[in-house]
Amino acid sequence: MDVCPRCGHRQNPAAASPPVNLTLPQPGDELYGVSGWLLLFCISLTFVGPIPEALIAARAFRNLATARVPIQTLLRLGSVGAIYAGLAVFSCIAGVMLWRKKPKGVSVAKGYLLIGAALPISLFLLLHLAGMRVNLVRVIFTRLVYSVVWYSYLAASRRVKVTYGAPGGGLRP
Fold it and tell me: Residues 6 or more apart from 37 whose CB is under 8 A from it?
């Protein structure tokens, strides 16, 4: 039997495991918390992004309710309204989770960035292929640039790692 040098308790050497050093983020760390680029991203997710998405959804639903148009147009308006309303809500949820430093906030924000690029691009690509006039290049460019830039930031930022812990649900204070 060995004695622990720290606390003096007797230990069984066969059952003892090597000590594990966990580095936990500390609120005193200069990169801990929602500020800098992370703050800008949270503002974008919570306030800036959802506004145009909600306006697009509202316009589509208003036109859907008042227009007497062919079924194809009704389907297009319904699809645009549903997708953009869902993206507005999803964006707000991701932003609030990041603000509140929820452990899954980074994963939810990354999910929003992937879905927020894939759904509108797919929708407008289908509309373009169906012969409707859409500015497909603008939609693809703006969605991809926003998503790639912020996804890369979330994946590589030291502030994100310190604030939310290691990828895969690392321990946090």
Answer: 153, 157, 159
pLDDT in tens, 31-64: 788 999 999 999 999 999 999 999 999 998 888 8
Residue that the structure tokens 């997708």 belong to = 83
Cα–Cα distance measured from residue 71 to residue 64, given in angstroms and rounded to the nearest whole number? 10
pTM of the full structure: 0.75
Report CA 27 to chain centroid distance, whole Å: 23
59 alpha carbon, distance to own chain's centre: 25
User: Which whole-number Å values give the CA distances from 133 to 47, 127, 137, in the listed order?
Assistant: 29, 8, 12
Q: With contact defined as beta carbons under 8 Å apart, do 61 and 69 qualify?
A: no
